[in-house]
Structure to design on (365 residues):
């Protein structure tokens, strides 16, 4: 739809930009109307986004296509709070149980890792003469199904959550000054940025290496399996080795992805690298989310969660816009070196937060 290779990842970047802008609104809106109504609004946005994308393909408009992706970004902004809603259902302060609840949400994504690509591939030519329009028509149907599922959803009322409050809400500046809060946001933000950076570049790099589109689809399926497959045991892993070690192990897997990717461009190497990339993201993302839930009180959740989601998607948006340019000018290896820098920063913040926590404990004793 565009002859400018630098704009190849623009629709994805548009989606993440809108997600970053809408995520704060979504958090504070749900504080007023509740999770259920917020998730319904997200489902409607999904339905509309798929419809606009189909219209864009029919009209041959790259700009309208980006608008459709932007509407899907609104859905994504609300959907990001599914994992927080799961954690809020858990009573008490058990970090292990909250981690398992968050992990369970991602098991649905594991199923989608198999169903999604196959669904997109099988229906992409459902509308004769307009390749891939059928794939986005499927998104319309999925939006409808989301609405039906959410209508049946029952979650604690906002008043019930507020009863868990233990004091006056602190300011965002005070919340953000906590070392654990910084480590949680860094884990989610930098882990997601490194993963999205590599993921967005992968299909282009696979095809550029001379492999068929079917190989690119297989590599991305392996990536999605890596992203969501560990969810079956990530919660237990956090309970066994701790949230910080889980985050560090996740960063290690993302670094391993880069090392493997730098060794060559065969399809098996792409697949193994992206599998490691997915596992690394899973542990950093679920670990960071779990750590974040321990840094705020119930009455502070909207501002704390909104801050994390906005910072995360703002960073992902910037890296998404840069992906096409970096891949075009520095190649697949350049993508890996940038990812190494991002992950080094994440590990640095995690180590610093651990030292701060240790010093605070020593001072207290």
């Amino acid at each position: 739809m565009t002859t400018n290779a630098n704009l190849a990842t623009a629709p994805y970047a548009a989606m993440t930009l809108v997600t970053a802008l809408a995520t704060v609104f979504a958090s504070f809106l749900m504080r007023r109307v509740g999770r259920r109504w917020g998730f319904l609004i997200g489902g409607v946005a999904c339905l509309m986004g798929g419809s606009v994308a189909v219209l864009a393909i029919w009209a041959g408009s790259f700009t309208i296509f980006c608008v459709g992706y932007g509407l899907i970004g609104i859905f994504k902004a609300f959907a990001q709070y599914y994992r927080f809603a799961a954690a809020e259902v858990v009573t008490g302060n058990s970090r292990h149980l909250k981690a398992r609840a968050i992990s369970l949400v991602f098991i649905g994504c594991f199923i989608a890792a198999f169903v999604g690509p196959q669904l997109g591939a099988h229906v992409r030519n459902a509308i004769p003469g307009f390749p891939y329009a059928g794939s986005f028509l499927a998104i319309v149907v999925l939006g409808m199904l989301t609405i039906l599922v959410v209508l049946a959803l029952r979650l604690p009322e906002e008043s019930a959550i507020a009863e868990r409050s233990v004091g006056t809400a602190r300011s965002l500046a005070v919340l953000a000054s906590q070392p654990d809060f910084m480590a949680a946001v860094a884990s989610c933000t930098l882990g997601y940025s490194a993963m999205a950076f590599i993921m967005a570049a992968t299909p282009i790099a696979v095809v550029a290496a001379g492999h068929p589109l079917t190989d690119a689809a297989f590599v991305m399926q392996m990536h999605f399996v890596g992203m969501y497959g560990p969810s079956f045991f990530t919660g237990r892993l956090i309970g066994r080795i701790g949230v910080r070690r889980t985050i560090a192990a996740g960063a290690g897997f993302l670094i391993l992805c880069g090392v493997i990717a730098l060794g060559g461009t065969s399809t098996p190497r792409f697949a193994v690298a992206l599998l490691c990339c997915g596992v690394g993201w899973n542990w950093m993302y679920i670990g960071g989310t779990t750590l974040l839930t321990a840094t705020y009180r119930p009455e502070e959740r909207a501002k704390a969660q909104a801050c994390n989601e906005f910072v995360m998607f703002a960073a992902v948006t910037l890296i998404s816009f840069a992906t096409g340019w970096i891949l075009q000018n520095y190649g697949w290896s350049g993508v890996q070196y940038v990812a190494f820098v991002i992950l080094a920063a994440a590990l640095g913040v995690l180590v610093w937060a651990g030292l701060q926590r240790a010093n605070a404990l020593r001072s207290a004793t």
Q: What stands out?
A: The CA atoms of residues 183 and 348 lie 9 Å apart. The domain at 5-364 is CATH 1.20.1250.20 (Growth Hormone; Chain: A;). The chain is about 80% helix and 0% strand.
